[in-house]
Specification:
The chain has about 190 residues and is of the alpha+beta class. Helix content is about 40%, strand content about 20%. Strands 1-2-3-4 form a four-stranded antiparallel sheet. The protein is rod-shaped and about 105 Å long.
Length: about 190
């Protein structure tokens, strides 16, 4: 019996049929239509497996994207609050720096909603020469912040420059969508 070698595209014995894909049957024992159906079945089976694999990967990618999208929603709100805090701190810093203490006092409110009434007459006796923002620590929930400011100031009567480390506690009001200062105005002359 002659030995035949089969490559993927060489017909078996010039019959116009291709070798079996399973390698179990010899080409001589199978009819041409049987050999063709085996090759066709193998092709369809391979294509189906590949499509299932592609769909599985596609579903995993979509699920991963959906998970990342959902987890980033709270961080967007936190980021907006952080931007709002930066704006509030900047305005507050400018008001303190230029002596608009009555306007700065509008940021004062305890977290229970009670209003604080600072001694504006006493604070008016001082002028700020420098206001530097230091550390800003924002809570994980993005609704509370601790800010350290270094303030150089002088009393109008003496002209002597002093330095004050002002620890501020800020909190975010969800209803009004703004930040409030829960600690008092800088304690000029109290050190």
């Amino acid at each position: 019996m002659p030995v035949h070698s089969y490559s993927g595209s060489t017909p078996a014995k010039n019959t116009g049929c291709y070798p079996p894909a399973d390698g179990l049957s010899s080409p001589e024992t199978l009819h041409c239509s049987q050999r063709s159906s085996i090759v066709f079945y193998w092709y369809v089976e391979t294509s189906t497996v590949m499509l299932k694999s592609v769909f599985r990967h596609l579903i995993l990618i979509i699920l991963a994207f959906a998970l990342v999208s959902c987890t980033s929603l709270p961080s967007i709100a936190t980021q907006k609050r952080s931007i709002s805090l930066d704006a509030s701190l900047s305005i507050y810093r400018k008001m303190i720096r230029w002596g608009y203490y009555d306007e700065a006092a509008k940021y004062l409110r305890a977290s229970d909603g009670s209003l604080a009434s600072p001694d504006l007459d006493r604070i008016a006796l001082y002028r700020v020469t420098n206001y530097n923002m230091g550390d800003q620590l924002i809570a994980d929930n993005g609704k509370e912040a601790r800010v350290i400011a270094m303030i150089e100031y002088y009393e109008l009567d003496s002209g002597v420059i002093h330095t004050l480390r002002d620890e501020q506690h800020w909190w975010y009001d969800e209803d009004e969508k703004r930040w409030y200062l829960g600690s008092p105005l800088p304690g000029f002359g109290l050190e």
